[in-house]
Amino acid sequence: MKKRKKIILALVGLLLVAGIIAIATKKGGNEQITFQTTQVEPGDIATNITATGTIEPVKTVDVGTQVSGIVKRLYVDYNSIVKRGQIIAELDRTNQLSVLSSAQAQLRSAQIELDYQKKNYARYAELKQKDLVSLAEYDVALENYRKAQESVRMAQQDVARAKTDVGYTTVYSPIDGVVIGKSVEEGQTVAASFSTPSICRIAKDLTDMQCIAKVDEADIGEVHEGQRVTFTVDAYPDDVFSGTVKQVRQNPVNTNNVVTYEVVISAPNADLKLMPGLTANITIYTLERSGVKSVPAGALRFTPEPDIFKGKYVIKDTSAEHKLWTLQGNVLTAHKVEVGVTDGIRTEIISGMEEGTTVIQSFEIGSTTTPGKKDADKKDKKDKKK
Q1: Please, what CATH class does the domain formed by 50-58+205-288 belong to?
Q2: Class of the 62-92+169-204 domain?
Q3: Which CATH architecture fits 32-44+293-367?
Q4: Strands 208-216 and 236-255: what pairing?
Q5: Average pLDDT, 10 consecutive residues per value, the chain (386 residues)
Q6: How many whole angstroms from its chain centre is CA 196?
Q7: How far apart are CA 184 and CA 64, in angstroms?
Q8: Does domain 93-166 match CATH 3.90.1150?
Q9: Does pTM top 0.70 for this prediction?
Q10: How far apart are CA 296 and CA 342, in angstroms?
């Protein structure tokens, strides 16, 4: 009897488990699959890279002096507008005038010596014709005359050099522009012994600026001349400035083992908002395609799982690398497509699918409500209120 009871209890347990499995299976069969669809339609595809850079004038000139001296007068200041040939500064020219005076005196002395040697040579030449002097004496007179000529030429060059140095004590602007930097003040001594000291820095045209961007070596291969660029500066966070890539410099810059390349970007500045030295946050559009036949990139990643769709849909797959799926009735059909460029959001469809076709992008699984459940829920809510 006890064995029979155990067998009966085991059978009852198996029946209960089987019932639970059957209920679960029945519930799973009521799960509804909802498809999110999209269309093959014209769209814009764009890729970009970001970088930082510095705003600079297109052309700047450091105006210096080639002679040493004390700055006697300084005629410009920051933001001064100057014209080509305008006097910027004057140095004390006492030393240069002294050198010029000495050179002129040397020239006069050399000229006197030349006049004497010329007359002396003429006398010896006349005596030689009469055989009254030896050939050696005649050659000495000729050599002295030629030396005197060379001395005069050297003295003339010294005078010209001294005059040039006097001229260098007046500093002129080499271009039209705006003074953006000043290195000296009146009364300061500048020494030109080893390098040309700078007086000021002039930017040619502040309405035409440029941005020097530092692009990482991983991105530089995508950057080419003519690409569109947008950038912002912290001084005007709500303004977006535009430009184009003018030059990709081949010179690498290694900073703390990080290699970057300089990219020159035009930066029109008609309203003069952009100032030299501002830091720019730059976006370079490396790819821009407008109105190309495309789909969201997720549509190319959709794949119907047999375990989920089996028994509910007929799956017609293809072995193509890239494919899009369509749904007609309960038939899921894969279509081979050829893809082009992508920006990670949209992907170009070159061939294999007509524009306007509806394709599957993704799906969701949700349980359907069993018959009568809504009425039971309403009744429970009423009972709770009572």
Answers
A1: mainly beta
A2: mainly beta
A3: Beta Barrel (2.40)
A4: unpaired
A5: 44 40 41 88 94 95 91 94 96 94 96 96 92 92 96 97 95 95 92 79 93 96 96 96 96 94 96 95 94 94 85 88 93 94 92 93 68 40 44
A6: 32
A7: 10
A8: no
A9: no
A10: 9
